Amino acid sequence: MPCRRRSGTGRRLRAKRPSETKAKMTTTAQQNQLVALFKAATVIPVLTIERIQDAVPLARALVAGGVRTLEVTLRTPVAIEAARAMMAEVPEAVVGIGTILNPADFTRVEKLGVAFGISPGLTPDLLKAATDSSLPFAPGIATASELMMALSYGFDVAKFFPAEQAGGIKGLRALGGPFPNVRFCPTGGVGEANAATWLAEPNVVAVGGSWLCPTAEIRAGNWAGITAICQRTLKALKGA
Q: From the candidates 16, 24, 71, 217, which is the catalytic residue?
């Protein structure tokens, strides 16, 4: 039996189990890894891939434009195979999976071997699955209560979603007051016109959005156009 000591109030304190300490340390390492990855990325394209044959040329177009960190969303039946093809054929890309909604999704993503995972929201079951994993993970939050739940599981890097609809820059700054150590990746309403404004916030490590790869351009196979959008965006952000 682990030793227990009494607090100054006479209450018996429960000793931390080794598994609890290990889980906390693992989550901290995951979050540090995610921060480094997001900071290096700056802009993360949110990819909804409808046809498997688009996966590799899309990844190559993005990488050619200077955008290497990619979020493939689980919104289509081919998403998993698309991510697998990208990792196999475009090794320069850092491929993650978004729209992770439940523990079953998380298990599929973890087995795939991607670099990171992102969800649009959170549940206790999803957060528990993430703490039991070594996969760097950012839960989605829109409110202080959701952020408090994420923090209770050790997650201090979060996707702020939907960013504009959840209060925009003012909403983000409001969260920064009581939660000064949390880092965010705002997504939802972030685009070429306002990405620099979001990135100027001290608690923002990256932004996500679909403007780098419009659905119409993907369907048309306009890979050169997507590369040009990426180059223009990164040039503007560097100037800002």
A: 71
**Options 110, 159, 164, 217, the catalytic residue:** 159
Q: Decide: pTM greater than 0.85.
A: yes
CB count in 10 Å sphere of residue 240: 10
| 71 tagged catalytic | yes
User: Is domain 19-239 classified as CATH 3.30.420.10?
Assistant: no
Are the C-beta atoms of 86 and 71 separated by less than 8 Å? no
Q: pLDDT tens digits, residue range 64-83? A: 999 999 999 999 999 999 99
Write out pLDDT tens, residues 184-206.
999 999 999 999 999 999 999 99
Helices 124-131 + 103-112 axis angle, to 10: 30
**Catalytic-residue membership of 20:** no
